[in-house]
Amino acid sequence: MIDLRTGIGHDTHRLVEGRSLRLGGIDIPFDRGLDGHSDADVLIHAIVDALLGAAGLGDIGQIFPDTDPKNKNRDSAEFLLEAVRLLNDRGFRILNLDTILFAEKPKLGDHRPKIRQRLADLLQLDPDRINIKAKTGEKIGIIGREEAISAEAIVLIEKNLKGTGTTS
């Protein structure tokens, strides 16, 4: 028997001056960055939430609270590696990942291959199991006014239950 589970994640952070912009574990040249306790990588935060949710392990704020000083300016790739470890420890395997980045600017199309490869390395997945979509806000709302960047992610994970004598 195979236990298949899905998880969904979302994150939004404001764009501010004086910070670098990191998305999907790579630095993106831009005049502003995302405001947050860690490096504020909205894409990785959404992926972490999707993974934790699929495995029934809560959310990023429970595992990596912004009240913990060790998370201040922390590289979000570390959060992702820890989430993958938590899933692996429970016998889960990531099957695929689909994501959307919402940003009016900077334009992200040219950065997608590099983001995809970085995520593949972090998740130990073939890049063809990862999809990165980029959308604008069509000049509407906080995305369209270039005030923020958002991300959404959905994952499919599995656990092989064969021979375990359990169904959950």
H/I helix tally: 5
Number of strands: 7
Task: Indicate the structural class.
Answer: alpha+beta
Q: How many angstroms does the end-to-end distance come to?
A: 10 Å
Strand order of the largest sheet: 4-1-7-5-6
**Radius of gyration from the alpha-carbon trace, in angstroms:** 16 Å
The SSE order reads EEEEHHHEHEHE
Question: Can you characterise this structure?
Answer:
- By secondary structure, this protein is an alpha+beta fold.
- 28% of the residues lie in helices and 32% in strands.
- The longest helix has 14 residues, at 76-89.
Gist of the model:
With 168 residues, the protein is α+β, with helices and mostly antiparallel strands.
Layout of helices and strands, plus pairs?
Blueprint: E1 2-16, E2 21-23, E3 26-28, E4 33-34, H1 42-54, H2 60-63, H3 76-89, E5 92-102, H4 112-123, E6 130-135, H5 141-144, E7 148-160
What attributes characterize this protein structure?
168 residues, alpha+beta, 5-stranded mixed beta sheet, two-stranded antiparallel sheet, 5 helices, 7 strands, 28% helix, globular
